[in-house]
Amino acid sequence: MKILLQSLFACAVMVLLACPAAQAQDPENTLYLDLADGRVVIEMRPDLAPKHVARIKELARMKFYDGIVFHRVIDGFMAQTGDPTGTGRGGSGQNLPAEFSNAPFQRGTVGMARATDPDSADSQFFICFAPAPFLDGQYTVWGQVTSGMEFVDKIKKGTGQSGMVSNPDKIVRLRVAADVK
């Protein structure tokens, strides 16, 4: 019986180690975005956008994103969040300089929302449902979903061209993986 239990324990450990959602590759540069339907794991890209990644981590550690809605969700395009007012006009109050790169906007790419000024990104970000090459080189890419896109796909969609959502889904919590025990 003892050998059977040791074997089962060893198998369980191997499964956990092999599961990308169970163990972050780089916990300091991984986010756990918890939604009502499940956990989304985001690999942050400080190599592409060091200032944006640092700010997102700072805000996550302040629990800034907890309870914030996905105010703009366009089916087949993206889900946008990060505005504490829920209107699409708010932010944390700290604009960031653009950190554009050659990284393409693909399914699961996480980028910063901004106004017309390239240096106006703040706390709002979006996750792409599908490739969006028209954004390439014009918006800052700072992350990539590595697991849980099926939960992003379930975020309540908005209506019309604006994609504004009535009774929107919320972020349950957003944490840096290194801080999760």
From TrEMBL:
SUPFAM superfamilies: Cyclophilin-like (SSF50891). Transmembrane segments: none annotated. Residues 38-179 form the PPIase cyclophilin-type domain. Its EC number is 5.2.1.8. InterPro entries: Cyclophilin-like_dom_sf, Cyclophilin-type_PPIase_dom, Cyclophilin_A-like. Keywords: Isomerase, Rotamase, Signal. One of its GO terms (molecular function) is peptidyl-prolyl cis-trans isomerase activity. It catalyses: [protein]-peptidylproline (omega=180) = [protein]-peptidylproline (omega=0). Belongs to the cyclophilin-type PPIase family. PPIases accelerate the folding of proteins. It catalyzes the cis-trans isomerization of proline imidic peptide bonds in oligopeptides. This is Peptidyl-prolyl cis-trans isomerase. It comes from Pseudodesulfovibrio hydrargyri. The gene is ppiB_1.
